[in-house]
Amino acid sequence: MNEGTQKEIWWLDGEPPLEDPTEEEVRGKGSRISISHLETLTPLYEAQNEDLVGAKLLETVRSERGRLEMNDEHLLKNVKASIYGTQIHSLQYFTQLFDRCASLGRIPDLSDFYATFPFKGYNYYYALTRILEIASEEYGEVTAENFWKAWRLNGHDFSPKQEGYKTISPNYIQQIWESRELEEKILKDFAKGRWDLKKELNPERKMVMNEGMLITNIDFGDRNMQLISIPDEVRIPNDWPNSPIEIIDYKTGYEFKKPDNVKLLQIF
Predict the structure, then answer these.
(1) CA torsion 108→112→113→115, rounded to 10°?
(2) Between β-strands 224-229 and 214-219, what pairing exists: parallel, antiparallel or unpaired?
(3) What's the Rg (C-alpha) of the chain?
(4) How many degrees, rounded to 5, is the angle at CA 82 between CA 80 and CA 197?
(5) Largest Cα–Cα distance of the chain, in whole Å?
(6) What share of the chain is helix, strand, coil (3-state, %, to 5)?
(7) Calpha distance 6→11 (Å, rounded)
(8) Helix, strand or coil, per DSSP, at residue 225
(9) Which run of H or of E encompasses 246?
(10) pLDDT value at residue 54
(11) pLDDT tens-place string over residues 31-79
(12) Contact, 207 vs 235, CB < 8 A?
């Protein structure tokens, strides 16, 4: 394990803040709900339809509560899977960004970070430009892999944002995040699964956004529902609408081999 390598701390916002809609907005534009919130309601909706008396609904609520109050071993497994997913997603983002810029004869700069991650805050873009400097200082040559390595070990705040998230200590979370074994596994897994996207993602033909916020407004006749999602990748061709926009969500593991209703909802 590497220790003490997080030399600089930046506040990197996650999802963009969303204000609660007013009653007038709900009437005019529809109810607004995130995909994650809708996913949590799906088992309850199914239980209510299965048993109108409410016994099945109560059983499902207790089951969901038990799932959230998981034991330490299960919680640690989820933490490791989440860290793995976050890091390999970022390696994918950075590799594609460096590949696109390479076709223009340069490495990424601030304007590329703005265009690729359009819904992040100023501190996020500043952090990535600082990572460029750190990668140059530590590795000499700034490649996508070296940039990702510098990103892993600089600028992350491991302190819990809420009181309820202290089951696993922040120091242990940091050890998992910075683990050399994890770095080697991700690089090995990524090399096995990577495909050549240089031609497909030519910057002169397609605009690529990572973790861009989308709002899908669905008309149900008498009311609308706005679904908020933040997919991993959105590809917009220069000749749109003649060519379709592609929306891609990366998955690790076997989540979609036998998708349940919640996973089918997420695909939708």
Answers:
(1) -160
(2) antiparallel
(3) 21
(4) 120
(5) 67
(6) 50, 10, 40
(7) 13
(8) strand
(9) strand 246-248
(10) 55
(11) 666 666 666 666 666 665 666 555 555 555 556 554 544 556 777 887 8
(12) yes
Residue 118 corresponds to which amino acid?
P
Is there a contact between 153 and 182 (Cβ–Cβ < 8 Å)? no
d(CA 114, CA 120): 8
Q: Residues of 76-97 as b/e, b for ≥16 C-beta within 10 angstroms? A: beebeeebbeebbbbbbbbbbb
With a CB cutoff of 8 Å and minimum separation 6, the contacts of 172 are none
How far separated are the first and last CA of the chain, in Å rounded? 40
pLDDT-derived band at 10 (thresholds 50, 70, 90) equals very low
Quick check: 152 pLDDT over 90?
yes
Residues contacting residue 69 through CB under 8 Å, at least 6 positions apart: none
CA 228 to chain centre: 14
Residue 193, amino acid: G
Name the token pair of 194.
């990577």
Which residues, other chains included, contact 149 with Cβ-Cβ below 8 Å and sequence gap of 6+?
A: 135, 139, 183
Length of the chain: 268
